[in-house]
């Protein structure tokens, strides 16, 4: 699944499958590291870009995030018909402006997500890495939620450049 995707005027985003349980997406943002980190760690900013616009009416209606090692998050979504569902987990490791690691507590198929941030002049490199407990869990993600990640990161880029 290695491929490069053009990212809204900012070069390329690299999507790479590593083995049978890992997925990595790397993206450069034309923004300072602190602004990019805040977009991942401040609920008011996070909820402005996290839901893909192509989500067919799914809205993020609640976003509770305590972004520190040992903190928890809960994201509540509403479907077009009003049905609610939530994703939640805990932060395993947070180093401000460097790394955020969290669980995706969705049962046995939940991945561990690591986002790292690297400053390159006035730009910021973001690496998004997910490790799934099984090959089947990765395959399932590749058919659903993981498909949205490039769009989500493009939305983040648009927000940071607005």
Report the sheet-strand fraction. 35-45%
What oligomeric assembly is this protein in?
single chain
Which stretches are low in confidence, meaning pLDDT under 50 for 5 or more residues running? 1-9
- What is Rg? 15 Å
As a percent range, the share of helical residues equals: 10-25%
The structural class is alpha+beta
Distance between the termini: 31 Å
Describe the protein in words.
By secondary structure, the protein is α+β, with helices and mostly antiparallel strands. 20% of the residues lie in helices and 42% in strands. Residues 1-9 have low confidence and may be disordered.
Can you lay out the helices and strands and say which pair or pack?
Layout: E1 3-6, E2 12-18, E3 22-29, H1 33-41, H2 43-46, E4 59-65, E5 72-78, E6 84-95, E7 99-103, E8 112-120, E9 123-131, H3 135-142, H4 149-160
Antiparallel strand pairs: 1-2, 2-3, 3-9, 4-5, 5-6, 6-7, 7-8, 8-9
List key phrases describing it:
162 residues; disordered N terminus; alpha+beta; nine-stranded antiparallel beta sheet
In short:
It is built from 4 helices and 9 strands, in the order βββααββββββαα. It has 162 residues and is of the alpha+beta class.
